[in-house]
Structures are given as C-alpha cells and as structure tokens.
Amino acid sequence: MSSGSPHRCTKQPYLLWRHEQYDAMAVEMEKRKKKITDEEKPTAVDGIRQTMMVEDCEKELQLKLRLFIVRGKHLSYQRGKRNTDPNTSLIKIEGVDTTEDAQFYLGKRVAYVYRSKKAVRGSKIRVIWGKITRPHGNNGVVRSKFRNNLPPSSFGATLRVMLYPSNI
Q1: Residue of 156, 134, 1 lying closest to 74 (CA atoms)
Q2: 97 by DSSP, 3-state: which?
Q3: Does residue 156 or residue 9 have the better pLDDT?
Q4: Residue 27 in contact with residue 61, Cβ under 8 Å?
Q5: What are the tens digits of pLDDT across the range 113-156?
Q6: Minimal CA–CA distance to 159: which of 93, 87, 77?
Q7: Are 80 and 165 in contact (CB under 8 A)?
Q8: Percent of the chain with pLDDT over 90
Q9: In 97-151, at which residue ranges do the beta strands (DSSP E only) sit?
Q10: What b-and-e string marks burial along 128-141, b requiring 16 or more CB atoms within 10 Å of the CB?
C-alpha cells in the first residue's frame, strides 16, 4: 500500500490492480515460462535449474491469483423459523467478523466451482456465479444472489469471493 493512500486498513485485502491488469500478468508469466522452456538443450544441472525456474513462475502466478480471491463458506439459504428461501445464500467470508468489514465486499462477485460427472466442451469443471448483495447479522455473514440457486449439496463448500469490481 502506498504511503499516500487514504486507506490504511490492514485487515481488508484492498485490491491494488484491476482485473484487466491480472490478465496482462498471466500473459506475461506464460511468456516467461515459454522463454525458459524454449531455450537451447541444457546440461543435466542446467535442466534442473530450468525446471525449478518454471516451477517458480507457476508458483508466482498462483500467488498473484490469490491476491484476487478470498475464500468463503456457503452456510445455508436465507431462512426463517420454518421456511427457506433458496434465492438468497448466506456466506461466511474468511477474516470478516463485523458488519463494517462486510461492507467492503458488497457488490463483489462470488464463484461456486464444482466438478460434474459429464464433460461439457471438454471440461468437467463448472461454475455458478453470483454477487454479494448485503450484510446479514452482526458477525460478518453476507447475503448473495446467484444466477442459478446453489444446490443444497454446496452447504459447507468453499466459495471464491473475487475482489472485483473494485469500489475504492
């Protein structure tokens, strides 16, 4: 965080880059990885060094990916004493313990990533996207709406809370 920034909150992972800049970083990392692997045939020792450099590039990319994602747990649907409302899901975000902390995440995108049995377009991985709408209670739980309602099998599952769109 730059010293001239008005935001000095150490608890919230404020977003420093925009989503487009993340795409540029990923392309740059791929180029670096390709450059390392496309060099001349190395000796055995150099080969080990090159492999380590490629692994370092991948680790660096994964680390930069983590800057854009915060984990959350799907607790339940919004409910009363007897009736549940599957249109609204309750999410507990890691490190968020108050309503004030939850305010930062309002409007952020949420992804439920899961594996299916049948591959569609070559992939068994599917995603249901949603958006955080408002806080729920005083302990940092938030309400969110998804394009398709989350299945009950996702209760307790990990969700990815994206740190975009940024409102700072």
Answers
A1: 156
A2: coil
A3: 156
A4: no
A5: 999 999 999 999 999 999 999 999 999 999 999 999 999 999 99
A6: 93
A7: no
A8: 57
A9: 109-120, 123-136, 141-146
A10: bebebeebbeeebb
